[in-house]
């Protein structure tokens, strides 16, 4: 499997919560595996890390954090079962040995090896819309702010307002990913959709309008993820969806490929 195809497959797992069927006008492409619950669960959000997929499952107001093997769908462990989820269910991120999740007004760190809890840190000042974990730090976006935390103990290190003022209005970031010490955010404005790259000090390195135009209509790339020297995103255009690849160094679009109608 080439790198782009693998990235595409993992994105699809994340986007459609472990269970998708890709349909074209003539052919139905079955999934490799599906996971079935008792009928009372609500799949909140999923993230992938290597060959593993982590997902948060309801029913609200309680939850379970589940780990699956991506190649087979085998359930590896369940953590936090029956604990209160609170606000913002399903906001989580994984990096190698740890997972960060926002749970009941707390940031909570779990081990990926067995689902055991490492620490719990209260966080009610900046409620995370997204979390992105890296080796030594993790990041969140909350309202106008990009926030940096230390992964070892959850200490909040930096808070920066990264809102953009454009056409008479302020716009806040609403997507976040991280790779190799660089943070990438997405901020939408009037007729524009900015991809922004930040360093570990949260300083902006570049800002590129990535609005994808199909005729007179513009579409903003979503579900950004970073891998190596490239960024990937999904662009939904009517009944079609595109996988888009970008240069991480400057945000330049490399290619787009249809993932619904191959």
Task: Lay out the secondary structure.
Elements: H1 3-15, E1 22-23, E2 28-29, E3 43-49, E4 52-57, E5 62-69, E6 75-84, E7 92-95, E8 98-103, E9 106-111, E10 117-122, E11 130-133, E12 137-142, E13 145-150, E14 156-161, E15 164-166, E16 169-171, E17 173-179, E18 182-189, E19 192-198, E20 204-209, E21 212-214, E22 217-219, E23 222-227, E24 230-237, E25 240-247, E26 253-258
Antiparallel strand pairs: 1-2, 3-4, 4-5, 5-6, 7-8, 8-9, 9-10, 11-12, 12-13, 13-14, 15-16, 17-18, 18-19, 19-20, 21-22, 23-24, 24-25, 25-26
Question: Which features characterize this protein?
Answer:
1 helix, globular
Task: Provide a short characterization of the protein structure.
This protein has about 260 residues and is mainly beta. The chain is about 5% helix and about 55% strand.
Classification by helices and strands: mainly beta
From the N-terminal CA to the C-terminal CA, the straight-line distance is 16 Å
Proportion in β-strands = over 45%
The helix fraction, in percent, is under 10%
| Shape estimate | globular
Q: Could you state the oligomeric state of the chains shown?
A: single chain
H-E string: HEEEEEEEEEEEEEEEEEEEEEEEEEE
Q: What is the arithmetic mean of pLDDT?
A: 83
Largest β-sheet summary: 4 strands, antiparallel
Strand order of the largest sheet: 3-4-5-6
Contiguous uncertain segments of 5+ residues: 5-29
User: Count of helical segments?
Assistant: 1
Rounded Rg:
18 Å
- Strand runs, count: 26
Can you describe this structure?
This protein has 262 residues and is mainly β. It has one helix at residues 3-15, and strands spanning 22-23, 28-29, 43-49, 52-57, 62-69, 75-84, 92-95, 98-103, 106-111, 117-122, 130-133, 137-142, 145-150, 156-161, 164-166, 169-171, 173-179, 182-189, 192-198, 204-209, 212-214, 217-219, 222-227, 230-237, 240-247, 253-258. The protein has one helix and 26 strands. A hairpin with a 2-residue loop joins strand 8 and strand 9. The radius of gyration is 18 Å and the shape is globular.
């Amino acid at each position: 499997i080439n790198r782009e195809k693998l990235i595409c497959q993992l994105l699809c797992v994340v986007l459609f919560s472990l269970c998708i069927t890709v349909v074209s006008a003539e052919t139905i492409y079955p999934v490799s595996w599906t996971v079935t619950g008792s009928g009372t669960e609500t799949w909140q959000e999923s993230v992938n890390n290597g060959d593993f997929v982590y997902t948060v499952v309801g029913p609200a107001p309680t939850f379970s954090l589940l780990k699956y093997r991506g190649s087979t769908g085998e359930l590896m462990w369940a953590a936090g079962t029956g604990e209160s989820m609170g606000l913002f269910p399903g906001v989580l991120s994984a990096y190698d040995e740890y997972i960060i999740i926002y749970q009941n007004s707390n940031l909570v760190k779990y081990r990926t090896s067995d689902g055991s809890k490492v620490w719990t840190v209260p966080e009610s000042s900046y409620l995370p819309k997204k979390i992105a974990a890296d080796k030594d730090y993790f990041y969140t976006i909350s309202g106008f702010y990009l926030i940096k935390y230390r992964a070892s103990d959850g200490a909040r290190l930096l808070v920066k307002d990264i809102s953009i003022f454009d056409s008479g209005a302020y716009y806040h970031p609403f997507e976040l990913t991280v790779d190799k010490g660089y943070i990438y955010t997405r901020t939408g404005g009037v007729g524009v959709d900015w991809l922004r790259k930040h360093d570990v000090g949260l300083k902006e390195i570049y800002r590129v309008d990535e609005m994808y135009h199909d005729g007179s209509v513009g579409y903003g790339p979503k579900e950004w993820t970073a891998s190596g020297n490239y960024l990937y995103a999904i662009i939904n255009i009517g009944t079609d969806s595109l996988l888009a690849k970008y240069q991480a160094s400057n945000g330049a679009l490399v290619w787009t490929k249809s993932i619904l109608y191959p």
